[in-house]
Specification:
The protein is mostly helical and 138 residues long. It contains 5 helices and 4 strands.
Length: 138
């Protein structure tokens, strides 16, 4: 899952449990949809990507640079305290929001299409909650 600075999910992909997340990192960045915004050429990729030590691979770093994205990925075999924890909590909070849906915290569904639909519905509900708060403020 890729989310913005507030924790709103931008793109999700379902993979097998035995598949490493880093293998799908660049495909997930490419899955971010085009968004309408200010006039001019629409920007549909993030400015930077934060990741933990599991995403520390030169292929991922180079792939992000080729897409004009700044990689902030913790390096392996270094001491903790890289400073990324100041922003990583947003991603962890979004995972916690998804885990409030019981069917997502423990996977009950055997069919992947039903589980992916539940995951999409959970992300849509998270987005709706953000929009509801923004509309109430106006």
């Amino acid at each position: 899952m890729i989310c913005d600075g507030r924790g709103i999910p931008l793109a999700i992909q379902l993979t097998g449990a035995n598949r490493n997340d880093s293998q799908q990192a660049l495909a997930l960045v490419d899955a971010i949809p085009h968004l309408q915004g200010k006039r001019g050429r629409p920007r549909h990729r993030p400015d930077c990507v934060l990741g933990d030590r599991g995403y520390d691979a030169e292929a991922i770093r180079q792939g992000l640079r080729d897409r004009r994205i700044i990689p902030f990925l913790a390096k392996r075999n270094t001491e903790h305290g890289s400073g990324l924890g100041r922003w990583r909590w947003v991603v962890e909070r979004t995972f916690a929001w998804l885990n409030q849906f019981r069917r997502l915290s423990v996977r009950y569904e055997k069919r992947e299409d039903i589980h992916e639909a539940s995951l999409s519905l959970g992300c849509a509900l998270i987005c709706w909650r953000f929009l509801r708060v923004d509309w109430a403020a106006n």
